Amino acid sequence: MQKIIIRRDTVMGIRSQSAIDYVLLRAEMKDKIKALPPGQVFVLRNIIKTPSALLGRYLYEDVDNNVIENVAYRGKVGGVNQYIKL
Asked: Residue 11 above 60 pLDDT?
């Protein structure tokens, strides 16, 4: 996991602990996905224990915009977005 240094008082102009938490969770999510073996099918709950809906949206958008490389969206299974590591 890459080391991230963040000032505790400001993240992207937003002064809140929750903004810092999202930055850290998003970085953790990306690192864990990069570590998955090719062919691994996963949902966000496999990566982050109790993800928020906003983190799910970030994952969907990052995969759609190819910010997270070598991952494809597979669709919804039981109402949950499913992905595969390529």
From this structure: no
Contact predicate 61/30, CB 8 Å? no
Single pTM value for the model: 0.77
Residue 73 bridge partners (DSSP): 83
Q: Which residue has the tokens 């970030």?
A: 58
Mean pLDDT of the chain: 85
Side chain identity, residue 24: L
Residue 43, classified by CB atoms within 10 Å of its CB into exposed (0-12), middle (13-18) or buried (19+), is: middle
Alpha-helix runs per DSSP H in 1-86: 17-34, 44-47, 53-64
DSSP 24: H
Q: Is the pLDDT of residue 61 over 90?
A: yes
